[in-house]
Design brief:
The chain is α+β, with helices and mostly antiparallel strands and 183 residues long. The protein is built from 7 helices and 6 strands; from the N terminus they run ααβββαααβααββ. A hairpin with a 5-residue loop joins strand 2 (63-64) and strand 3. It starts with 5 loop residues before the first helix and ends with a strand.
Length: 183
């Protein structure tokens, strides 16, 4: 077994226990030039590898490549062996964990979010359910929110979190008008 520093042991052993063997985030306090040097040495020895980061999964970035893509760090089989962990065991455990997560998610009841009554969000939904819908200016006037906050609530809270089918249409004299079919 090669001689490793405490930092290298910590990075490699943590990565071996994470899903997809991600080496990020690095240990607390390791950043800047020290992090770059440590990671560069581990890449040179073949213990870590830079791979394209999957932004849809929210994988942490090691660096941006300049062409709009980012990379993350993954421990290699050699890195696992360097800390005395058998790669086959890690891969088997990862497969077992993935199966357990898949089974749990298929058996778990679906949780649908519903807005609380009497909140500004509920009032916005009521405005959008009107046949004429509501413009940003009308929602701002009713809620006292700023326009960017209003747009954020529509796209984030209503569309993404509540999965409401909010539609928008530009109408002359009113601007962009948002509508929501009655539930």
């Amino acid at each position: 077994m090669p001689k490793l520093t405490d930092t290298q042991i910590l990075i490699l052993s943590r990565a071996a226990n994470r899903p997809d063997n991600l080496a990020l985030p690095l240990p607390e306090g390791l950043h800047g030039a020290a992090a770059k040097m440590s990671v560069s040495n581990m890449i040179a020895r073949g213990w870590l590898e830079e791979v394209d980061a999957d932004m849809r999964k929210g994988e942490p970035l090691w660096r941006e490549t300049g062409d709009g893509h980012g990379t993350t760090l993954v421990v290699t089989d050699a890195g696992m062996l360097a800390v005395g962990i058998e790669p086959v065991v890690v891969k088997t455990m990862a497969a077992v964990r993935n199966r357990a997560v898949e089974n749990a998610s298929s058996k778990a009841p679906s949780l649908t979010r519903t807005p609380r009554r009497g909140t500004k969000q509920a009032e916005v939904i009521a405005l959008l359910e009107r046949p004429e819908g509501a413009s940003i200016a009308e929602i701002v006037e009713m809620t006292s929110w700023l326009p960017h906050t209003t747009r954020g609530v529509i796209s984030g809270a209503l569309k993404k979190k509540l999965s409401l089918p909010v539609a928008s249409e530009k109408i002359s004299g009113r601007g962009t008008v948002y509508t929501l079919p009655s539930r």
